[in-house]
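Our collaborator T.R. sent over the components below with a one-line note: 'Predict the complex.' Nothing else. No constraints on interfaces, no templates requested, no preferences about which chain binds where. So this is a plain run: every listed entity goes in together, and whatever single assembly comes back becomes the starting point for the next discussion.
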Amino acid sequence: MSLLSVRDLTVKFASRDGAMAALNGISFDLARGERLGIVGESGAGKSITGFALMNLLSKPGFIDGGEILFEGEDVTQMSPKQVRDMRGNRMAMIFQDPMVTLNPVLTIGQQMVETLRAHRNLSFEEARQIALVKLKEVYIPSPDERLDQYPHELSGGMRQRIIIAMALLLDPKLIIADEPTTALDVTIQADIMELLLEMCQSNQVGLILITHDLGVVSQVTERTMVMYAGRIIETGATRSIINDPQHPYTQGLINALPQQTPPGQRLKQIPGAMPTLSAMPTGCPFHTRCAHVTDECKRTAPEVSQFGDTAVACHEVHRLQRDLPKEVAQ
Amino acid sequence: MFAYLVKRVFQAIAVMLAISLIAFAIQGNLGDPLRELVGQSVSEEVRQKLRDDLGLNDPFAVQYLRFLGNALQGDLGTSYFFKEPALDVILKKLPATLELVFGATVIIIGLSIPLGVFTAIWPNSILTRIILSLSIVGLSIPVFLTAILMIFFFSVELGWMPSFGRGEIVHVFGYWETNFATKDGWAHIIMPSIALSSIMLPMFIRLIRAEMIDVLQSEYIRYAQAKGIAPWRIYFVHALKNTLLPVITVGGVQIGTMVAYTILTETVFSWPGMGAMFLEAVNRVDTPLIVAYLIVVGFIFVLTNTIVDLIYGLVNPTINLARMGA
Ligand SMILES: Nc1ncnc2c1ncn2[C@@H]1O[C@H](COP(=O)(O)OP(=O)(O)OP(=O)(O)O)[C@@H](O)[C@H]1O
Ligand SMILES: [Mg+2]
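Returned assembly:
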């Protein structure tokens, strides 16, 4: 049994003109201890996916259908109490900006201890000892002092380390990290990402890593899922996605990487912008920007087809299979 | 910490100097002290002599410094009407006013926090709508009208509540007179306290509600939810503390302001405090008393603000008092 199995998950946002779909029936699986990357441009629905898994969508967002089976239980059917018992305990989350994630008026110790005590019957002292051990594991210098400090006394990198330690406090099965290094100084981004990878590996924790950075994805994850306009348009082994992308959108993403462009030339960005929720095109949502668009693409949404271990949602992928690899190859 | 304290005390002194200057300037422009002292049947020469003797012909700065020197020794002039030191007159009235302000403050703090939090957590509840509608009503009716309406219903029509004066008061600690020692005292202070709080209470409910709604949207609240923290703890530990921090500063200013608002309430309820006294002093052009009142109220205002700022610095961990003093 896989750790996580998402089936036909649909998320909508209520608005004055009716509900708009932000996720259009997405399905994917995650094995125990597996690390999955979610990539895609801004607004693709990556964060919404992460929050939906935690049943933590904020209004006006809501889950409109589908299943999220986590260790065999459907998160969408859980009572508020069951959801609370799961959050932070079996499934933990790491947010994007450590400067605003921690409560400014509570000490690090208070915030770690409360998490432990929310899920286990521990005394303050016992909880504090566990917190101390976890802080040591993420290489925080003088952890004893840290526990009595307030967030504003610590740097962004230190705070994100602490947040990683907090995510590990109750030995979760899955960690969802939504752009955990984007808000940090570039010089420490790699350190934090490496720490996250090390912690997931040594603790056998599954990871869903949401990011814009394909470099990070290839460094950390085993499988990658590419999202566009609330759909998964390509999934597969990270290596295949990076080296042999099938979907024109994924190819566009890879081609837009700075490494793909000689110094001094402009980056090869995908022309146009992702459609907004209220102005979703018919058929394939990418057809408005796609160089290979056909009439079929404008009419019907493509089914998923399998190429080896890669799944792709594109009408033209068979033709592209024949024509394109040479063009894309670096 | 000590440096911050010293800094705050210096600021407070600066504000007090400004207030005293204004009060003194008012004194110079309000009526002719000679008329109060000797009446009108005295010849111009005698008047001039008297002016010289009293120092009224000295330069402004000299007069102000003399005034300040006297004030520092507790001498704020002599009331024309009471023929007593102005400060003594005010200090006798002070307990009545402070107890009234205290009563209103207790009502405001006791109700605004639970109601503000409730209306923020359950924005769509019927009770929330009722509370918010009532708060608009409270905000838009002037204090004196609220007071008169209360007297009309609860004193005149229903006869439940006394409508004027302090009722039975008890002397405590030698000097202080309190309403809170007898049943009659309690009965007398309830309506004036409610009237005095009738503007601030709705304001605070709305302030706390708005602040709490804001805080509840912040990322750290969502993160606390993501950690599986129980809702009551999120509301009362994570959110409330962040909500009240900014409210403390506003609150301090408002409690100071309330001392001035007592003028209306005390007058309507014939409350023997310094607010009603001030209005009488104005009617009688009792200049020393007016000036003394301004200075005492200014002093209370500055004192509450300074204390509130210090408390704010102590409870807000992101303010490093030691560093701020530097
Ligand atoms: N509160 C909301 N109300 C309406 N629409 C929303 C709301 N929050 C998000 N959306 C929409 O849902 C879609 C997906 O948003 P999401 O935050 O998941 O994007 P993302 O892929 O995480 O982008 P980014 O890379 O910028 O973080 C976007 O089109 C966004 O406009
Ligand atoms: Mg996002």
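Summary for T.R.: Chain B touches chain A at residues 218-220, 222-230, 233, 237-238, 241-242, 245, 316-318 (CB under 8 Å).
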